[in-house]
């Protein structure tokens, strides 16, 4: 809230409402006017709300998918429109990240060169191939749904869980740079990933049920862990791009695992 006796925004205090708004600002391109000031360190607290931001992103994406399907469009077309809507909402934040990561890890010969390539705005062949595969897999999974409502549920759960897992990456992985988002955010307190985990579990079980929800959770953890281990080996930890890549890979793992389980 803004002080009624001053034109200056209030300071960031880290409550759930402020954390949610900070999460929206960092993870989406929605026009948010927070009414308070904050810096990168706000992510130490705000990351606990990332799974909730995923519900917003997944809800928008899933709604586009569902509406397109109910209009009579083929599910593959509905899936393309849904992924396009997601990219608009997020500003292709995580897609850009995984492209940078694949370019850096594939093209660099040592840590510094990998980090330099990841920061380069130019797009390489590795990035293009990675994006084709990741987006193609999402579209293929959503286009193979036996029921659009089930596809909607998968989209929402995958979007929420994959963003909630970023919190654990911030907690477990050291920053690979001395600047940038990964370093600026800092390591969150243990309560942040624990709160994120509770939200993820509730989302998965409430939407998909205990069995399928557990499969989605495990698939997301496996995908995030693999990406995290690769990043630790390649550059010694996480960056903002690595966090985005973790989101993309875990989301794909969740969607594929859920499709295989039905």
TrEMBL record:
<comment type="similarity">
    <text>Belongs to the CobS family.</text>
</comment>
<comment type="pathway">
    <text>Cofactor biosynthesis; adenosylcobalamin biosynthesis; adenosylcobalamin from cob(II)yrinate a,c-diamide: step 7/7.</text>
</comment>
<feature type="transmembrane region" description="Helical">
    <location>
        <begin position="191"/>
        <end position="208"/>
    </location>
</feature>
<dbReference type="GO" id="GO:0051073">
    <property type="term" value="F:adenosylcobinamide-GDP ribazoletransferase activity"/>
</dbReference>
<keyword id="KW-0169">Cobalamin biosynthesis</keyword>
<keyword id="KW-1133">Transmembrane helix</keyword>
<protein>
    <recommendedName>
        <fullName>Adenosylcobinamide-GDP ribazoletransferase</fullName>
        <ecNumber>2.7.8.26</ecNumber>
    </recommendedName>
</protein>
<feature type="transmembrane region" description="Helical">
    <location>
        <begin position="123"/>
        <end position="143"/>
    </location>
</feature>
<keyword id="KW-0812">Transmembrane</keyword>
<keyword id="KW-0472">Membrane</keyword>
<keyword id="KW-0808">Transferase</keyword>
<feature type="transmembrane region" description="Helical">
    <location>
        <begin position="50"/>
        <end position="69"/>
    </location>
</feature>
<dbReference type="Pfam" id="PF02654">
    <property type="entry name" value="CobS"/>
</dbReference>
<feature type="transmembrane region" description="Helical">
    <location>
        <begin position="20"/>
        <end position="38"/>
    </location>
</feature>
<comment type="function">
    <text>Joins adenosylcobinamide-GDP and alpha-ribazole to generate adenosylcobalamin (Ado-cobalamin). Also synthesizes adenosylcobalamin 5'-phosphate from adenosylcobinamide-GDP and alpha-ribazole 5'-phosphate.</text>
</comment>
<feature type="transmembrane region" description="Helical">
    <location>
        <begin position="149"/>
        <end position="171"/>
    </location>
</feature>
<dbReference type="InterPro" id="IPR003805">
    <property type="entry name" value="CobS"/>
</dbReference>
<keyword id="KW-1003">Cell membrane</keyword>
<keyword id="KW-0460">Magnesium</keyword>
């Amino acid at each position: 809230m803004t002080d009624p006796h001053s034109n200056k925004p209030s300071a960031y205090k880290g409550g759930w409402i402020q954390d949610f708004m900070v999460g929206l600002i960092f993870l989406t391109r929605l026009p948010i006017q927070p009414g308070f000031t904050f810096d990168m360190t706000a992510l130490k607290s705000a990351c606990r709300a990332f799974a909730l931001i995923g519900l917003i992103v997944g809800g928008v994406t899933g709604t586009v998918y569902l509406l397109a399907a109910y209009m009579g469009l083929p599910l593959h077309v509905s899936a393309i429109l849904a992924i396009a809507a997601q990219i608009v909402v997020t500003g292709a934040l995580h897609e850009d990240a995984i492209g940078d990561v694949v370019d850096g890890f594939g093209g660099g010969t040592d840590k510094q060169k990998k980090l330099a390539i990841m920061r380069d705005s130019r797009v390489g062949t590795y990035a293009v191939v990675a994006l084709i595969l990741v987006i193609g897999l999402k579209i293929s999974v959503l286009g193979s749904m036996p029921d659009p409502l089930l596809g909607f549920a998968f989209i929402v759960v995958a979007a929420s869980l994959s963003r909630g897992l970023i919190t654990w990456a911030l907690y477990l992985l050291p920053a690979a740079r001395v600047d940038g988002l990964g370093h600026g955010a800092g390591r969150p307190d243990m309560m942040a990933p624990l709160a994120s985990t509770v939200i993820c579990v509730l989302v998965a079980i409430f939407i998909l049920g205990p069995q399928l929800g557990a499969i989605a959770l495990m698939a997301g953890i496996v995908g995030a862990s693999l990406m995290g281990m690769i990043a630790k080996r390649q550059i010694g930890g996480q960056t903002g791009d690595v966090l985005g890549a973790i989101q993309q890979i875990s989301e794909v793992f969740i969607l594929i695992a859920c499709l295989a389980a039905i």
